[in-house]
Specification:
The chain has a five-stranded parallel beta sheet with strand order 2-7-1-8-9, sandwiched between helices. It has a four-stranded mixed beta sheet with strand order 4-3-6-5, sandwiched between helices. 31% of the residues are buried. With 199 residues, it is α/β, with parallel strands linked by helices. It is globular. The protein has eight helices and nine strands. Helix 2 (28-38) packs across helix 8 (184-196). The structure holds adenosine-5'-diphosphate and guanosine-5'-monophosphate. Residues 22, 24-30, 146, 149-150, 181, 184 line the site of adenosine-5'-diphosphate.
Length: 199
């Protein structure tokens, strides 16, 4: 009975969870910004928590909730994360706070999670209805160029991100939807159409 009620409630609210993954530097942030500006859908971005330091121009609570490792692990032990992982080996922790999702989904919002593949697959296990979208590069050389162009990573960090990229591309087949971000306008158009088709 309680299951029936929660299912009815879910249908009434029309909230959605949309997971967007893809290798670092492929253009997820750039694409999502463009689609958010033009899609006319009730999209809201989930702000992840991370232990990595902010880049110049990143603001606490906007791009990420920037937490100390102590605070991150305190919240983790408290069960506040829907999912969290150490994203680059020996690197920093990233995670989705449950508080980013629950009230917004109940209010009918479409909450977009820009997270790595292991996080995405964990969300999919917990919410099998989540819309799974993977953003691909035309080829791996493009990733190197884009990471260099963004100019935010040290050589070591860029290398870790490229190694992670090949692992992510192997797991990507578990995602239902794939978009190649070659021409930005074409890719943004495809993402917009895909989302609009879910209205
Ligand atoms: P991600 O969020 O996936 O790590 P970003 O959105 O930060 O990637 O993009 C990485 C870099 O690539 C940025 O400098 C961005 O301007 C550039 N970029 C994104 N999409 C394209 C594209 N289609 N063509 C050329 N450059 C792009
Ligand atoms: P960046 O340091 O470039 O902002 O992000 C690095 C990687 O962490 C990206 O692949 C991004 O998708 C991933 N990421 C960001 N937030 C989260 C999160 O909340 N959970 C998980 N699992 N990965 C995340």
């Amino acid at each position: 009975m309680s299951n029936e009620l929660s299912e009815q409630q879910r249908l009434k609210t029309n909230g959605r969870i949309i997971v967007v993954s893809g290798p670092s530097g492929v253009g997820k942030g750039t694409l999502l910004k463009k689609v958010f500006q033009t899609a006319e859908l009730p999209l809201e971005l989930s702000v992840s928590a991370t232990t990595r330091p902010p880049r110049p121009n990143e603001r606490n609570g906007v791009e990420y909730h920037f937490l100390s490792p102590e605070e991150f692990h305190r919240r983790r032990e408290n069960g506040e994360f829907l999912e969290c992982f150490e994203v680059f080996r020996g690197g920093h922790w990233y995670g989705t706070l449950r508080s980013e999702l629950e009230s917004r989904c109940a209010a009918g919002k479409w909450v977009v999670l820009e997270i790595d593949v292991q996080g995405g697959l964990s969300v999919q296990r917990q919410y099998p209805d989540a819309v799974m979208i993977f953003i691909r590069p035309k080829n791996v050389d493009v990733l190197k160029e884009r990471l260099a162009k963004r100019g935010t990573e040290s050589q070591k960090s860029a290398e870790q991100r490229l190694q992670q990229a090949s692992r992510e591309l192997e797991l990507a087949e578990r995602y239902a939807h794939h978009i190649v971000n070659d021409d930005l306008d074409v890719a943004a158009g495809e993402l917009r159409e895909l989302l609009k088709g879910m209205e």
